[in-house]
Design brief:
single chain; 28% strand; GIY-YIG endonuclease; 36% helix; alpha+beta; five-stranded mixed beta sheet
Length: 141
């Protein structure tokens, strides 16, 4: 798939997650499964908002990070054993959204956290209706 970003903010839905970019000037590129270089370049300077749940989908956790792959590994390995995600076994990535700046990601995280569980479920359902674990997609970048 080819894409062009004009010099204003655009949202491009890629696979099961959203990629939000603020671009100055124009940018042209090719997006495919082998586009990890593009994704890694964006992630090096941006941020991600994500939602984790447990295997029974009873608890949700919303977080923000500048390195989603590393953060997922921390959650899965329980690097912080007394953390909320470790105590409730929140290791299933059901939602992620990427931004060109960490500041934008932090703003989005705050907005998502302020929502009710029902609104978070609608957000997840909008991009991942089966609540599949998206972690492999991230960990294989």
């Amino acid at each position: 798939m080819s894409f062009i970003f004009p010099p204003n903010k655009q949202t491009l839905t890629v696979s099961l997650f959203k990629l939000n970019l603020s671009v100055t000037g124009s940018f042209t590129g090719i997006l495919s499964k082998s586009s990890s270089i593009l994704i890694n370049s964006i992630m090096a300077y941006g941020g991600s908002v994500y939602i984790l749940t447990n295997k029974n989908k009873t608890t949700l956790y919303t977080g923000v990070t500048s390195d989603l792959g590393a953060r997922l590994r921390q959650h899965r390995n329980k690097a912080f054993p007394n953390s909320f995600t470790a105590r409730y076994n929140l290791t299933v990535l059901v939602y992620m959204e990427h931004f060109s700046s960490i500041e934008e990601a932090i703003q989005r995280e705050k907005a998502i956290k302020a929502k009710t569980r029902a609104n978070k479920e609608k957000l997840i359902d909008s991009v991942n209706p089966n609540w599949d674990d998206l972690a492999n997609e991230v960990l294989n970048w």
